[in-house]
Design goal:
Number of helices: 48
CATH superfamily of the domain at 15-189: P-loop containing nucleotide triphosphate hydrolases
CATH class of the domain at 15-189: Alpha Beta
Shape: elongated
Strand order of the largest sheet: 1-3-4-5-2-6
Helix content: 55-70%
Radius of gyration: 38 Å
Largest sheet: 6 strands, mixed
Length: about 900
């Protein structure tokens, strides 16, 4: 089968035809046809059976039959080449009758014959395309006699087009060196993922994108295999169902491979391909160990050079990759017919990879063999190194295969298991394994095992309730991890130092240690630990409120950490949290909700942790979710969510100070904005205890007086911020300060000062990558922003975005109310009289009446009922 639609009907001895009709006109290979159409010299198509060589030539030449001479050879009858060519030329309409009368077909002197043929065709004015489909089916002697002459004969008006399954069948030689031949091989003829998708759609096969990707992965775009797979899936395809192993489950495909590909292989080739099918990539020595053939490497090299069933790779092309479908077919045959042999081969492969210093491949083969003793041995010797290079998933899967009795008897295995589960944010399980290691610990344990245990204990402590008394940094130092002979251990020790510094608020130290870890990882060529170092740098910047820097570090972490590690290990939950935080502070609440939901789903065992990293992450995600709901207009439960997050952070929680600063500013600002004075006072009292001497506390103390127009008091309370004794914990707190000062300047008639403050705030927001404080600013600030549109210079785009954020709906265009007006407004839905309202708010009745009159005016209401309705409409009432 050399087409896309079934067994070729043209395998007769030899077939002399004009241009065959494409047997499956489902997918036009327009890109390849265009390449052939542009060819003015010889064309060579070389690929195994089933790559659509005949179909492609048919598509190219179908509308150009007049000057085409086409012959197809039969492998069962070794015909002579020259008589077949002569017969094909006789049938070509473009050659006038009598032109070839000088030739009988018995000629054997190729140079003389071809020179005479060139003269005859030129005299007749005939220019011919000669297609020899299946060159490899002619004898070696016939090919060597005629093909070089056809390729290189001067003046011969024939465009030679050759299709072959074997690279050895044609030696382009001089034609290739002179650039006079266009070659297409299997890599060119294979379907791309887009072509596979298009073919699936045209054959009415309903496949999901995951299935299409899996089909492409298993077939590598082999056209015949793709068509056969789609044919079998056509009636029962379900986009939600896994595709399964095509080589093992598709009988039609297996029979095709046996008939068209494998039957032509020798016994030795069969043996080598079968025995190496347990490996994705093999080298000659490995192939020898698996197959027992001393010349196994030469056999694979021949299959690569001649049959294109194997790909040579690596330095010096010494590594071999068998085509995935061929490899899967042989592996499925072993599993079905000789499962014991499959186990034996995996054991051999495991030992070979271990001896070659490739522990991950060794562990994979040990797991495939199901040999628990072998799995345990490899994990004991190489488990820590695998974890240090990102093999977390594989180590965890291997651990689950081992009986508890095997694990319990080995402290080293237990420590490796503990580290694997710490890396995957599963502290409960990690603690269980660490406890098992302690139960069987020996006082003369080797130093490298003691280092592993110290690292596991230090890292696990961040997830426990008593982390602040355990001093992980001291444990790491006591175990001399920074001086370890293992580079991964030294780098991990620096990671512990980073977390310790962050917990103490020593951000400079944390950044220095993380940068040093990054340099060490780069020098060691360890991209996994480099990715973790970038993640630490992102966390360091994020905890300071420097979101732009944090996002850049996070991007680099995502590039370094392998996708499978990012989605199941250290990265995903932390990354989702930082993305959610960035989206919220970037005024993208919908994206923040999506990332927060993803982060919450990925917390795993951390979700129920009342202390340590788990509690901090959960509280942060709750706060982000509540704020995002508030920013999208869903105010009903926003303040309650913020309170819940605030109460979750105790004094002894990890990163309590930056968390407290964030929660205090966000919740206090939201409470005042919604007119909940009591909640604002509650937050202020909480902050008085948690954030003494900070810029955040100064801000909270000033926001209340500013809301009731006590501007001098507010300014006085902000003064320590500008005099340095009370610096903010978070950089973006300055934006809230700027918004407050800009609002006060506007309300006191100092618009020039307000404009200056606003420009500085825009610059700071752009620098930090934080715009939410400006996006939720009072309406008078936004009005000034719009008034000064076009004058913001480099920050003009940011200013325009902020303006656009306030225009989408009526809720965004709600009239601005002062905090005192909001307090009065919250009492309007009640049945309190104005006297009772005055008593409740500790104001005079006249002051209450004045506020009510202003509220009516701003809301466009004529009555108390209308004012309440308008307040709900504009979002002033939850």
């Amino acid at each position: 089968m050399d087409d896309q639609g079934g067994t070729r009907p043209d395998l007769l001895s030899p077939q002399l035809i004009a241009v065959p009709r494409p047997p499956l006109d489902l997918l036009a290979r327009s890109r390849l046809v265009a390449k052939l159409h542009a060819a003015t010299d010889a064309v060579l198509l070389c690929a195994p059976a089933g790559y659509g060589k005949t179909v492609l030539l048919s598509q190219w030449l179908h509308g150009r039959k007049h000057n085409v001479a086409w012959l197809t050879a039969d492998g069962h009858h070794k015909a002579e080449l020259w008589p077949a060519i002569l017969h094909a030329l006789h049938r070509c309409p473009a050659i006038p009758p009598g032109t070839l009368s000088l030739f009988s077909g018995a000629e054997d002197n190729a140079p003389d014959v071809l020179e005479l043929l060139a003269g005859q065709l030129n005299a007749a004015g005939s220019s011919i395309r000669l297609v020899i489909d299946g060159v490899d089916n002619f004898s070696h002697h016939e090919r060597d006699r005629w093909i070089p002459g056809l390729l290189n004969q001067a003046g011969l008006p024939i465009q030679l087009i050759l299709a072959t399954r074997s690279n050895a069948a044609v030696d382009p030689g001089r034609a290739r060196l002179n650039g006079r031949i266009v070659e297409l091989h299997s890599s060119d003829l294979a379907f791309s993922l887009d072509e596979l998708n298009a073919l699936a759609a045209r054959t009415l096969t309903l496949l999901g994108m995951h299935q299409l990707g899996e089909l492409f992965k298993q077939t590598a775009g082999w056209p015949a295999a793709v068509v056969l797979a789609l044919r079998s899936l056509r009636a029962s395809a379900d986009p939600r169902t896994p595709l399964g192993d095509l080589a093992a489950n598709n009988r039609e495909l297996a029979e095709y491979l046996d008939h068209e590909i494998l039957r032509t292989l020798s016994h030795e080739q069969h043996n080598v391909l079968s025995s190496t099918s347990v490996c994705r990539t093999v080298v000659a020595a490995q192939a020898h160990a698996l197959s027992g053939h001393r010349n196994a490497g030469s056999i694979l090299s021949c299959l690569a050079d001649d049959c294109d069933l194997v790909e040579s790779a690596g330095n010096g092309r010494t590594a071999f990759l068998v085509r995935p479908l061929i490899r899967a077919h042989f592996r499925a045959e072993l599993a079905r017919k000789d499962p014991d042999e499959l186990i034996r081969l995996n054991r051999i492969a495991a030992h070979w990879h271990e001896a070659a210093g490739q522990p991950e491949a060794a562990l994979r083969h040990a797991m495939d063999s199901g040999d628990n003793q072998l799995i345990g041995t490899i994990l004991e010797q190489h488990g820590a190194a695998l974890l240090g290079t990102g093999g977390v998933q594989r180590v965890r899967r291997a651990i689950t295969m081992l009986p508890e009795s095997v694990l319990a008897a080995s402290p080293r295995l237990c420590v490796v298991a503990a580290l694997a589960h710490v890396e995957s944010r599963q502290p409960t399980t990690a603690a269980r394994y660490l406890a098992a290691a302690h139960r069987n610990w020996s006082n003369d344990a080797p130093s490298d095992l003691c280092e592993l245990r110290a690292l596991a204990e230090a890292r696990l402590s961040w997830f426990s309730g008593g982390w602040e008394t355990q001093d992980p940094q001291a444990a790491v130092d006591d175990a001399a991890l920074p001086l370890s002979g293992q580079s991964e251990m030294r780098i991990e020790a620096r990671m512990v130092s980073v977390t310790a510094a962050l917990a103490e608020g020593q951000y400079g130290t944390a950044e220095q240690e993380a940068t040093a870890a990054l340099i060490d990882a780069a020098e060691a060529g360890n991209t996994y630990l480099a990715g973790k170092a970038y993640l630490k740098l992102a966390a360091t910047s994020s905890l300071q409120g420097q979101l732009r820097r944090a996002n850049e570090y996070l991007r680099q972490a995502e590039e370094k950490l392998p996708a499978y590690v990012w989605t199941s290990g250290a990265g995903r939950s932390v990354g989702a949290l930082m993305h959610a935080s960035s989206a919220l502070l970037g005024a993208e609440p919908a994206a923040a909700l999506t990332f927060a939901a993803e982060g919450t789903a990925e917390l795993g065992q951390l979700g129920s942790s009342p202390k340590g990293v788990g509690a901090t992450m959960r509280a942060t995600l709750e706060l982000i979710t509540a704020c995002a709901h508030l920013d999208t207009g869903d105010r009903r439960h926003a303040l309650d969510g913020m309170r819940q997050a605030r109460l979750r952070i105790g004094r002894d929680n990890l990163f309590a100070r930056p968390m407290a600063a964030c929660i205090a500013v966000v919740e206090h600002t939201a409470a005042l904005g919604l007119g909940h004075a009591e909640r604002a006072r509650e937050v202020l009292e909480w902050a008085e205890e948690r954030l003494p001497g900070t810029g955040e506390l100064c801000l909270l103390r000033a926001q209340g007086p500013a809301g009731i127009s006590r501007f001098e008091a507010a300014t006085d309370r902000l003064r320590p911020l500008h005099a340095d004794p009370a610096m903010p914990v978070l950089e973006w707190t300055w934006l809230h300060v700027a918004v407050l000062e800009c609002s006060m300047a506007i309300r006191t008639g100092r618009r020039t000062l307000a404009g200056k403050i606003l420009d500085e705030a825009l610059l700071k927001a752009d620098e930090l990558g934080v715009i939410r404080p400006l996006a939720i600013a009072p309406q008078e600030v936004i009005d000034l922003l719009m008034e000064r549109a076009g004058t913001h210079g480099p920050q003009e785009a940011l200013a325009q975005r902020l303006i656009a954020l306030r225009r989408p709906d009526d809720a965004r265009r709600a009239p601005s109310l002062t905090p005192r007006e909001r307090e009065v407004l919250t009492l309007l839905p009640s049945h309190l009289s104005q006297d009772q309202m005055a008593a409740e708010l500790h104001l005079s009745v006249n002051t209450v009446k004045t506020h009510i009159r202003i509220i009516y005016s701003k809301l466009g209401a004529g009555s108390r009922h209308d004012a309440v309705a308008a307040a709900y409409k504009f979002g002033h009432l939850p």
